[in-house]
């Protein structure tokens, strides 16, 4: 006779999950193997919490490493990684996981993406058969290359936001998100977010309690849900357009001043409309919004690198009201200036 406790256990433990881990030359070892380590920890916790744990009990999660031909691959670090299956011999998996890859530069990376048509077709076929596709960091580019993310929500690593937008304009990209899911397509942001992706998969195929226990065991901050505190305008560099580039330098030199767009346009010898059009084309921001981002970036650096009081920092970046600045900072960064300083200022 089934007891109430056994019935409850049965209801909270779904069917077993088999994960296909896509291994390609140039992948990051931590992103590739870290997902497996996380699933192994989940198996141990599930086994320990089961009613009658035995060595014969099947693991909740299993996995296999898949490469295009079934041959070993070479990680970005030079390590050789053995695999279990090729694309043609891979098992039926509930999830196909795409790790992060080394980024060698825009041109080389785009050329590499264009050479992955066979893998993209295989991924699309697996998704059409019902599998989840999950990608981490630069792996999200490979997922987007399939076309499956078109008109769907996604995120990617924050420092390649502009390149992603240019290559995949039909994707609904929200780079502030650490993790996104839309129609069995899961994206994770910058590289270490594979840990958050792992806990998401663990919750999906076991339950939220197991996922929370795994997060605690691995010191994963599950309260972190956005990339905004880590983002920087500096990765965008200076514009190749001479007017926009001069305006960037002008704004950087006048952070602490009250800036009028009419004066900026006059100094750049263009109309305000032209200046706004150029900035939106380059940065998807107006000049005023770009200035706001520069000021927030300067404030972040002062919070990280100095012990200046917040009131002094606010003045140095062109603001006067502490409460309104704090609200603005939290709106864009997801945390308060005090929390930001506590998280990112090096301990002495």
Task: Tell me about this structure.
With 348 residues, this protein is of the alpha/beta class. The chain folds into two domains: 215 residues, 3-Layer(aba) Sandwich (Rossmann fold); 112 residues, Homeodomain-like (Arc Repressor Mutant, subunit A), CATH 1.10.10. Helices cover 47% and strands 11% of the residues. The protein has 15 helices and eleven strands. Strands 5-2-1-6-7-11-10 form a seven-stranded mixed sheet, sandwiched between helices. Strands 3-4 form a two-stranded antiparallel sheet. Strands 8-9 form a two-stranded parallel ribbon. A hairpin with a 2-residue loop joins strand 10 and strand 11. The N terminus is likely disordered.
Task: Give keywords.
alpha/beta, single chain, 348 residues, 15 helices, 2 domains, 47% helix, two-stranded antiparallel ribbon, Rossmann fold, Arc Repressor Mutant, subunit A
């Amino acid at each position: 006779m089934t007891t109430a406790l056994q019935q409850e256990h049965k209801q909270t433990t779904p069917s077993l999950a088999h994960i296909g881990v896509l291994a390609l030359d140039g992948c990051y070892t931590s992103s590739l193997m870290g997902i497996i380590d996380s699933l192994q920890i989940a198996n141990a916790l599930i086994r320990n919490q089961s009613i009658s744990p035995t060595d014969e009990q099947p693991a909740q999660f299993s996995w296999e490493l898949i490469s295009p031909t079934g041959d070993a691959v070479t990680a970005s670090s030079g390590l050789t990684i053995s695999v279990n299956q090729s694309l043609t011999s891979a098992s039926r998996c509930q999830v196909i996981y795409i790790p992060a890859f080394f980024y060698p530069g825009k041109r080389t990376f785009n050329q590499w993406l264009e050479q992955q048509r066979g893998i993209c077709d295989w991924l699309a076929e697996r998704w059409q058969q019902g599998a989840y596709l999950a990608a981490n960091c630069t792996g999200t580019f490979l997922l987007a290359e399939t076309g499956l993310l078109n008109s769907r929500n996604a995120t990617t690593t924050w420092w390649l936001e502009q390149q992603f937008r240019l290559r995949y304009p039909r994707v609904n990209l929200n780079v502030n998100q650490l993790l996104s899911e839309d129609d069995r397509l899961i994206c994770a942001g910058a590289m270490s977010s594979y840990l958050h992706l792992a806990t998401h998969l663990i919750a999906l195929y076991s339950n939220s309690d197991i996922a929370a226990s795994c997060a605690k065991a691995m010191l994963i901050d599950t309260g972190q849900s956005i990339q905004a505190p880590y983002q920087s305008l500096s990765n965008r560099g200076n514009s190749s357009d001479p007017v926009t580039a001069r305006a960037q330098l002008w704004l950087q030199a006048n952070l602490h001043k009250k800036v009028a767009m009419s004066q900026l346009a006059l100094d750049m010898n263009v109309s305000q409309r032209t200046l706004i059009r150029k900035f939106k084309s380059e940065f998807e921001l107006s000049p005023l919004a770009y200035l706001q981002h520069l000021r927030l970036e300067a404030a972040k650096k002062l919070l990280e690198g100095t012990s200046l009081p917040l009131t002094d920092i606010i003045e140095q970046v062109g603001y006067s009201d502490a409460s309104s600045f704090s609200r603005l900072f939290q709106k864009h960064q997801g945390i308060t200036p005090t929390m930001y300083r506590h998280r990112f200022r090096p301990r002495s």
